[in-house]
């Protein structure tokens, strides 16, 4: 019999990850007590460990980083557009001069 996929709330995942991070119980015990697979508990624990520093970042830091990435993306899009135009120009000139592009 195939089980349907379960969706856990963010609060539930956070509670399980905190419990695993504390180290009072083993990951296997936490998984067994909450009817989860130990790999899932380990994954949530690892995600918490990797992202815990985000709690202490400046409020505008994420917005600044997003703005930087958007600006970089816009510059790259302009550069790609410029290169496409140059390529088309050179191909046209090659045809006019009888050179194989």
Notes on the protein architecture:
The radius of gyration is 26 Å and the shape is elongated. The chain contains four helices and no strands. It is mostly helical. The mean pLDDT is 90. The chain has two domains: 50 residues; 44 residues. The longest helix has 37 residues.
Keywords:
0% strand; mainly alpha; 2 domains; single chain
Number of helices: 4
Shape: elongated
Distance between the termini: 61 Å
Number of domains: 2
| Largest sheet features | none
Name the helicity range: over 70%
List the helices and strands and how they pair.
Layout: H1 10-22, H2 27-33, H3 38-51, H4 61-97
Helix pairs in contact: 1-3, 2-3
Structure described in brief:
The protein contains four helices and no strands.
